[in-house]
Predict the 3D structure of the following.
Amino acid sequence: LIEGFRPGVMERLGLGPEVCLTRNPKLVYGRMTGWGQEGPLSQAAGHDINYIALSGALHCFGRKDQAPVPPLNLVGDFGGGALYLAFGIVCGLLEAQRSGQGQVVDAAMVDGSASLMTMFYGLKAMGAWSEKRGENILDTGAPFYDVYETADGKYVAIGAIEPKFYKELLERLGLDDSLAQSQFDRSAWPQAKEKLRAIFKTKTREEWCELLEGTDSCFAPVLSMEEAPNHPHNVQRGAFMVIEGIVQPAPAPRFSRTKPKVQRPPTPPSRELTLEALKGWGIEEERIVELMEKNVLGP
């Protein structure tokens, strides 16, 4: 069972964990919220941007001397929320098979986004991460981990963290090997970044792809959502699919035996789709119509 109401709503409806687990002791009861089931903010409204702000994640996104930049709603809603809930439910189901007992999975986006930040909290504790944006190895501070504009106004992404990859990048760019010698010298980063910025402006994105794509330079073009489905690598892997004229990402991860299928493209809510879905779960049509008439179910 999965519910995403504010804490206490399911209890008021008579469908809280205590009631449900009494009827089915092996039930795994997933609860998805932003702030969690308890805490001073548990009853407050919020969205992804608020949850990742409180976990310390949002503070880390952005360039030097600029405001934090929301990373879409990937970190809270999807990464720290939905994926943590899914993982928690799978863990709960596996444990219930052994113990015969279900339990509640309290998945809060503020908790999940904080968990995703574990490595960076560890680096900070080691003195290897600055609180100032744009001064660290993975936040656009380092010249070897950043995006660069090309001659045609497009961008390329560089992620040559390991010295051997950075050295190969510099060799292919025709730059002095001295940059490789000072790769992790933070005082040398601004000058190295200027050199890389200048050289990437000398060719178009396509020209850089011809020179660097597929090498160990840790290079990739920055593609738009319009471009990404047509890239040869994505095409060969089937990373995107077209259903009834609508392009959308294919299911992931991939399973060797039980291959997932996409049944239909994104569609607006409708009475027909609701009926079809619930009937597919074994609920009788008369019962579905009754719930709709009582406004228990939406269209």
Q: What stands out?
A: The longest strand covers residues 28-33. Residues 267-298 form one domain.
